[in-house]
């Protein structure tokens, strides 16, 4: 897959001193990364405008290659955001119409700008660990501050309930508005799925940081009684383990060691004190997990959502999902709100970027564990939660992520051409 039909190519003038050029480039990169982090932190008003200066910062980057494919994809992202938010306002189907009308242009621009930032940043900065940390860090900080502050302020109540938050909702750390537990869960899910980074070839300190993020996110997800992020984390870790095993050079000694470890694992059952284990399982979260497992009312909601696409192809939120409010699926919720055309447009954008994900996995296998973890987290969240309705910030950062994958593909293609010459 080639994506190197370049129509614009710019770099810093050669007459700049190397020191000045390096300083300018590093500062622009740092400010871009900081802006993405601040956006994810969801600070009121600041998050809405912090991406706009990035359009100027892009001009100070060293590599600025623009392809026809990029212009097409960026236009599709803009078109989707424009159709979604303008139709939401025209249909008057949200409970926050006044807020949406006043902020609509910011929301549309942020989605497009985030995609553009990811694309150009990938051509100049290839430290994937930092990119993943920035993508996840802002959302993690916001979720952590909101959940931890609530738990500390209601410590007695939470402790008496087996350290679970019965309401499955917490007030926002910034403005006190209610955030549903499942939405906090998808923020934490991104960090949980970065547990796959333990297989990456990075230093131990950085691995430790990712493990702390994952462990903290698991702890607070358990407090909020969220199942999906735990499943997503398990899936991401399983895929990362499979990737690691298929990439490692299995000598006879390593193969024998793996077989011994797998054989010894069942023996652990003989050393578990099941009387203590039983007490751990006796809490509302584990009762829900053991009794329901993968069962969920979402299956019925998805069926209603699919039928609704044929009954109301222009949207308008006419399908009745009662007693629930949404279809709990990104694509079905978009179709329910604004119709089939924006939903298909979103699907086209996402499917067009699957080859770029596969290209990254192929070209950078040693750095792919975090990327596959983040991809799994995004996919699971979009499958089971109303992500765009509940958090435009989350979906905007998704566009940043796929924009980065596209830009990285171009960067790798150009580097490969340079080597062949």
Descriptive notes:
- By secondary structure, the protein is mostly helical.
- The chain contains 20 helices and four strands.
- The protein has helices at 18-40, 46-49, 54-57, 68-91, 97-122, 128-153, 155-160, 181-193, 204-223, 228-247, 252-264, 274-281, 284-292, 298-311, 330-338, 340-352, 354-363, 368-384, 387-390, 392-420, and strands at residues 6-10, 64-67, 169-171, 178-180.
- The longest helix is centred in the last third of the chain and has 29 residues, at 392-420.
- The two termini are 19 Å apart.
Give the structure's gist in a few sentences.
This protein is mainly alpha-helical and 421 residues long. The protein contains 20 helices and four strands.
Detail the topology: elements first, then pairings.
Blueprint: E1 6-10, H1 18-40, H2 46-49, H3 54-57, E2 64-67, H4 68-91, H5 97-122, H6 128-153, H7 155-160, E3 169-171, E4 178-180, H8 181-193, H9 204-223, H10 228-247, H11 252-264, H12 274-281, H13 284-292, H14 298-311, H15 330-338, H16 340-352, H17 354-363, H18 368-384, H19 387-390, H20 392-420
Helix pairs in contact: 1-6, 4-5, 4-16, 5-20, 6-8, 6-9, 8-9, 8-10, 8-18, 10-18, 14-15, 15-16, 17-18, 17-20
Main traits of this protein?
single chain, 421 residues, two-stranded antiparallel sheet
Strand content: under 5%
- The overall strand count is 4
In which range does the helix fraction lie? 55-70%
The quaternary state of the protein chains shown equals single chain
**Mean pLDDT over the residues:** 83
User: How do the SSEs run, as a string of H and E?
Assistant: EHHHEHHHHEEHHHHHHHHHHHHH
Structural class of the helix and strand makeup?
mainly alpha
Radius of gyration: 23 Å
Strand order of the largest sheet: 1-2
**Rough outline:** globular
Q: Number of helix segments? A: 20
Terminal CA distance: 19 Å
* Poorly predicted regions: 13-17, 269-281
Largest sheet at a glance?
2 strands, antiparallel
